Structure formats: structure tokens, C-alpha cells
Model the fold of this input.
Amino acid sequence: MNITELSIRRPVTTVMLFVSMVVIGLIAAFRLPLEAQPEATAPFFFVQLPYAGSTPEEVERNLVRPVEEAIATMPGIKSINANASADGGGVFVQFSDWGRDIAIASSEARERIDAIRDQLPDDFRRYFVRRWSTGDQEAVSLRLTSKEDLTARGELIERSLKRRLERLPGVARVEVEGVPVQEVLIAIDPDRLTANGVGLDELVQRLQSSNFSVSAGQITDDGRRLRIQPKGELNDVQELRDLPVSARGVRLADIADVTLQPQRMNYVRQVDGRPAVGVDIYKERAANLVDLSRAVQAEIEALKDDPAMRGIAIDVTDDQGQQVVSSLVALAEAGAIGLALSIVVLWFFLRHWPSVLMVSTAIPICFIMTLGFMYFAGITLNVLSMMGLLLAVGMLVDNAVVVVESIYQEREKYPGQPRLASIVGTRHVAIALSAGTLCHCIVFLPMMFGEKNMLTIYLTQLAVTISVSLLASWLVAISLIPMLSARMQTPPAVKSPFISRLQVRYARLLRWTLEHRGWSVAGIVLITALSIIPMKLTKGDEGDGEDPGEIAIFYQWQGSYSKEEMGKEVAKVEAYLEANRKRFRIERVYTRYSEQGWAFTQVDADVDTPEATKKIEEDIRKEMPKSARANLGIGRQGGMGGEQKNIQFSLVGDSTQTLKELAEDIIPILSRGKHLRDVRVDMGDANSELSVHVNRERAAAYGFSAKQVADFVGMALRGSSLRDFHRDQIEVPVNVRFAGSEHYGAEDLQSFTVRTPDGRQVPLLAMVDVETKASSTTIQRMNRQTTLKVEASLASGSTMPDAQKEIEDTLKSIDFPPGYAYTFEGGGFGINIDMNQQMLRNVGIALIMMFIVMAAVFESLLFPLAIMSGVLFSVFGVYWLFWLTGTSFNIMAFIGILVLMGVVVNNGIVMIEHINNLRRRGMPRTEALVEGSRERLRPIMMTMGTAILAMVPIALSDTQIAGEGPPYYPMARAIAGGLAFSTVVSLLFLPTIYALLDDLRAGSGRLVQRARERRPGGLRMRRKPA
Done:
């Protein structure tokens, strides 16, 4: 007894089983956490090496390279990227294995770095090893603006805003940027230092040993073990002022001003020309994103009524919870419209409301069962899993439609036996349904179990939801639908005049194509040849996944400038934008710049399409003010912490100078190309540095080592950091530097003296040689080689593949010295191309796996080829629609093709299996082809109609993933266009292809048979003479 017979014999049990699954699914659905994206931990970590007041060369030599060498021998490393700047360095380590435990890897990295601490500079204090997961992104971002200077209101923001937000349930931490942190500054007066006879070396030693807390072991007292901890920590600024710094009783206050004050900020962030403060709110791992978003919104409303916050505007710039809700609502609306359109299609063909409702019931039942599975499998309801449910809307009724159609056809043979008709009708299509559903699920196996990366982790969510919902629809089709059909009347549309006329005309046309196979083959060849046109003309990825309303302007500085000087150049650009605010449809202008050398201005424009954005970009580029201090262009300059959206490639070698010379040859050629704009080298900004070389002989003559003199110079110019000062349980950094040291020049070194071991005062300049030379603000490295990144923006109307080809053609024409090369690793379009290539491999693997399943079902290696031809026609249809609508072919289109393959193969299996069943009953091949195709015309048109119309709402919308990712419409258009084209072409030519392959099989069988007959005969003929 199979599932169908059991469900018909025990209808109450069947109904209760599905009711139970629906109830459990509903309960689980309300408990599903809402997330922007699935939780995933990437196999990499980042070592942050803060070392302020240095030079890029020093950071690279003394910090970055030793750390690289220590980490490089860890097993399984895929790549190591590093950078060095004047404020420190960073090492980014990526592993090949996505299953690697990054927590353990990070711990091992810490052990290796700790083992080489003696090789790092003595004043290097601490480093950080950071991991990343999707849950580490900010949940809500706020921007504070005011007519007053917010940088002076740090304590108010800390007390009235930050602490209140941190107390909200689900908030892990709150970070504030744009207000200075407090520091204890010891500003040494050189004249007072010299007048009191205190040497620089003596002062440093005194200060470093003045604030301490160590462990001194344990002692026994009356049988009790007591820990000893000598403390010399300073708890008050006045204690620091009264600190003796020489044997003659000189106090620190006698030679320096000791104050608790805000640190000087070396960066600026502003909105529409006014200073702005950024507040990023991070959620706890287990917190519900939507609940957190609502709590933050409610707190913001309460803060607006707080008198302390009067005059401060709070804008929500990014709300992941709101984006998730809006994206899910948009998908739900599209799904509801698609469901309604699908019901209309079913009614048009069935004209029997009980049958329509019976088939449509499969959609909510399968939805709820899938939601229940997601809860128990630990899958969250996010934009990707919701997208899988949306794609499944038009496919969930496919199995039910095929079963209902087969049952009603059997009812014509058994008019008085509805139970028998239900059993026989379901049995005839059971194998085809099982194979089709299996093929549909197999499509996603390469993503789920193949090469693991962020793309496959994300798409696995989509694959699981589609696969589970299709398996649920298969269960509904072979159990619930036959049980209900056995208790319903035959719908009148089985004998509908319209359907009958359509089937008669189709059968007549099909018979003609089978009788004139030459013309049919010519038609197939013509369609294939013509389809090459849209395949060639369809645009590739244009890199328009970002928000179309955002336009970025970069500044590449020609020297090192203070933030005040940088602000003058930024003000010119902002004034130009303000003067053209209406023309460029500007809503907001957001600028950030730093003395570390990076700066950008982001323009938020009121536009909805990438084409409109490109036009505004070109207009801004043409009339943008020129600057003698910076090169300006459209795009983002690397290294500023913003999301990278430009095209990038890297020149790799050993010498920075040689790489610069190569870049000078390459950039003019690329700039003349038609696909790239604003081509530039990302090596930071042009800078100059004061190079101080210690004269070892002179230093030794005064009794100092070279390292001691270098420490003196560092203290004089950069200052030094001491142990943190504790104030109200908050750690406050303590920094020592000379008053006005940020404005020092080479001549100021003459005023610094140090005390020799014999008590003499020696000018510091007597032991060093000073020169000024050019430098850059950033040094970049890749796999322990120096790199130079070249960046560019995409020209209007150009695509990523166009840009890649143009760059590759240029680079191939360059004669690279030995040991020098180029790479697209980590570059802007390289990521998209890698994803497209991986999706192409997944499509190929899926086709092979589907062929294996179909070969097993049909016991033939040729019949699956007939069905696979439908996949080819569907791809043609995708390109035809993309070309006609101007849609770019990107990663979302590949996802659509994967889903499309399952639908096309499912229809083909049902059709071919029915034709084979008719032939097994003794019907001639031509008659079986005509009759089988005619009988399957209506269910194929129903499944095609429901699937296409379910995609129409989202194909016409511009809804994006999570509100800011790639749009959904390329995926929906790929499914709709491919399915419509392949269905029409397959209905016309699939029987012809079947007949041709059947003739080929029969002909090859006859040849094999003849060969077998000749071989034994030949042997007998040779044996006779013997």
C-alpha cells in the first residue's frame, strides 16, 4: 500500500496529520527570529597594530613585517594582506577552509605575536585580534547634528544618549564617533625643563615608573594565604602634578602643564557643512533585530523630549531592523499578488472553484510547513530565506496541478469510480513527480555542499527553503490532493470548448512538425542562431548593486595638510554642490576627512535608478572645482573605512619605487580608455617626512647607544604614552609630549638636551642628522610583498566585464620586470566575476546531476538529452528578455537560472514520462507523441502561467535585498522570460527532438545487433575448413 492509497483509505488520519503539521508550523513561525541576513562567521581575522606618531616605513619595518612572519606559518592560510600608516598597521589573514574555528585561530595568532614581543618597539603598548561575523555589523546607525559645535559636548552625549541606549535590552555596545575622548596631557615646556636641569631621558624614566600596579606573590598570616599587590597608581591629576621628577625636588608641575582635557581630533565628519556625530548601536547575538530597532526608535522619540538634548537633531541613517521589515513586507506583497494571479490562472483553466481552492491550498500549507522546518533547523527568517519562499510561490502548485489533471483524465475512463481514478491517476504521474521534485532540489546541491564561501552560505538559505517547500508540495500532491479529489466532482473545464479547440489545434501543428522534421530541425537551428544576438548584446554586471542614490567624491591629497587646510578644499566642493542642489536633486551632503590622508564626500540624491545616478555623476565630474592640493574624482579612495565600490587591481613586487614607475606608465593608458573614469593610484596621499638618522659614533662619544638617542627623538617629537589613569572607574589615557609639538619643525630639535652619564647637558641635535624627503601616507602589502593598488570608477554605460577586458589588455601589453606582476585579488569587479564563475560551475554540476537522475528514471541516456534541450531554450529566453528590457546579467540572474532549470526539467519529465507510458500501452510513437503532448498541454500551461505570474510583481519592482543590496528583478525576469520562451519552444519542438533521439537509439541498437550477429557467424565460417 503506497502513500496515495493510505491517504484515500484513511482521510481523517491524513487531514489530522496535515492539521498537526500546520499548527506546529504556525507556532514555530511566530517564534522565528527576524534577521537582516543569516549568521555567518568568515574565515579570517584582522590584527590591529596601533602605533601613533610614527611613519609608514617605520610601522612596516618594526611592526607589520615581524607580525607577518610570525603568523605566516599558520596552516591553511589563503592570503595575508597588510597595511602600514603613520598611526599604525594592520594584518588581514584569510584562511582557505570555511569550516575553520576562527576563535582558535585568533588565539594561536595571539600566542605567536606574544612570542615576538621582544622584537617589537618598546613603546608599542597593545594590539587587537578581531574576528568578524555578520552579527558584528551595526544594527542601527544614528547621526547627530546641531547648529552648535557638538565636538565640545562629548560628556552630554555620553551621559544623555550613549548610556541610555546601552541600557536597552538586546544592545551589546554603543560606539560614538565625532567627539573627542578625555586624556591626561602632560605638556612639557622645553625652557622650564632646561632651566630646572632635568634631562629628557631622566624625565621619561621617572614618569614610566611612577604609575604602576604589580603582583608580589602571597604570604601566610595566621594560617591564611594573603595576596600581595604593591600599588603605585595615581588616582588624581593633582598627584601627578606633585610627582617629583628629579633628586633636587623638582615637581612635574614645575616643568609641565598637567591637564585633563579632550584629545585633539585629527578628523572631521559633517553633514551639510555642520559638524556631525555618529552613533553606532550593535546588538547582542541572540537579540531580535526588529525588537531592538523598535526599542531604539522609541528611545529616540523619548530623547527628543529631553531638555538636555534640545537643539540636537537625531537622524537614523541606517536601521537594519527597519530595512528587514520593509524588505519582507515588499516580498510578502509581491508574493500575495503573485498568489492571487496564480489563482486566476488556475480558475481560467479549471473553471471549478472547489478544484482551484484544493490546488491553491497547497501554497499556504507548504509555506507553513517550511516555516516550521526553518525553526527546528535553526534557520532565521531573513531576506534570503524569504526570497526562497517567494520564488516557491509559483512552483508549489505545479505538482498538485499535474496530479489533479491526471486524476480528472482517469475519471473520464472510470466515471463512477472516483477513488480508483484518484489512485490510478496519481500512480501514472508519481514517478515523474518524484523525479521532477528531486531534480528541482538537486539544482541547489552544489551550493549547499560544494565550495563554501559567503555566497554559498547565503544561497544555502534560499536553497533550503525552496527545497523543503517543494518536498512539502510533493507530499501534498501524492496524499492530500488525491484524497480530496476522490470526494469532488469532475470539473466542467475538462470538456471545455476553449481547451478542446486549443488542444486540437496544438495536436494538428505538432503532427505537422513530426511529419516535416526537416523544417522542425531548421526551426531549432534558426532559433539557436538568432538567440546568439541577445547573448552578445545583453549587458554584463554594471556594478549597480549599491544604493542608486549615493554618489561618492574622493580627494587624493598632494601633500600632508592639517584638517583646517583640508577643510578649505572640502568647503569649495560643498559650496559647488550647494549651489547646484536642485539641479543634482541633492537631499544631503555628508563629508568625512582626516589628517591621516583620506577624505570623501557622499552625496545623497533623490534618484531611483542607476542610469539617473550615472548622469548626475557625469555632470558633477565635468564642473567640479579644481584644487591645487588634491586630485578630485567620483568614487571612493581606499583606506577610509567606507564600503569599497570601485574597480581595483594591484601591482605586486618588492620595490615601491619600481611599482610607482609601472603605475605611471599604466595610468595614462587606462585613462584614455572608454570604460574607466578617474583612474588613480591608491597609495595614500603625497606626503613629506623628517628623516632623523642617529650618528652612532657621536652618540657613543657622549655615552649613549643609538637606540637611546632614537628614544629621545621619539619622545621629543611624538611624545610617549604612559600607564592609563583611572578616573571614576574609566581608563583615561596619559600622554606626554612637548607643548606645541604638533607644530615643531627641524629647527626645534636644537632646543632639546639630554643628560649624559657624567652629568653634562648635550644638545640632541649633536647626535643626529636630519633631512626632509618625500613619502606616502600608506604602504600596502599582499602575501608579504609590497603592492600598489590602482583604482578607477566605471564609465557610464560600461559593464564590469568590459572594464576587466580593457584592464587586462593594457596590462598584458606592459613589460613587467622579473618578480613584478598584477592581480585582481580583492579588487572591486574581481569579486563579482569570481561569484559569476562559481555560479556557472554550479549550473554545470547541477546539469550533470539532473542528467544522472533522468537517465535512471527513463533507463536511457538519450531521452534526458531531449529534456535538457528545454534548459538550453530557457537560457535563450533569459537573454531575449534581458536584451529587450535592458536588464544587466549579474549574480541574481544566475540564481534565477538555477530555479528556472528545476521548473523546466520538471515540465519535461512529466511530458516525456507520459509519452513513454502511452507507448508502453502499445500506442505508436507518433500517436503517443501527439496524444501525450496534447494531454499535457493544459497542466504545462497552468504551471507555466502560475510560475510566471508569481514573478511578475517583483520583476516590475525595484525592491533590493535588505533595502540596500542587489535588486531582485533580474532573478524574477530570468525565471519569467526563460520559462515562457522554453515552454513555447519545447511544446513545439520537444516531440521532434524526442523522435530524432529515439531514431538514433533504434539505429545504434540495430548496428550493435548486426555487429553481434556477424561476429559469431564469422567465427563459424573460419572453423569449417578446420
In short: The first strand starts at residue 41 and ends at 50. Residues 329 and 629 are 48 Å apart (CA to CA).
